[in-house]
Specification:
This protein is mostly helical and about 80 residues long. It is built from 4 helices and no strands. The longest helix has 19 residues.
């Protein structure tokens, strides 16, 4: 995918995100699917859609990283 193609799906995003997405080797269809999962995962599951494949899952990780887990009590800062 080109930079312009990625932006056409995601809108304005950081250059590092564009590079990470491009490095996955994903297709436009896979990028659109990942973007759909981020916005409506519960609705897609309710529709009976299969869980995302590995490449789509990787795109989801790039586009919607998990929040940092809270530190354990007593952890050093």
């Amino acid at each position: 995918m080109t930079r312009d193609e990625i932006i056409s799906v995601l809108g304005p995003v950081d250059e590092a995100v564009i590079a990470d997405v491009a490095l996955t080797g994903a297709s436009m269809e896979e990028l659109r699917e990942a973007f759909a999962w981020i916005g409506a995962d519960e609705a897609l599951i309710n529709e009976g859609r299969a869980m995302p494949g590995a490449r789509v899952a990787r795109l989801i990780e790039i586009l919607d990283p998990p929040e940092d887990e809270p530190e354990a009590p007593g952890a050093m800062e």
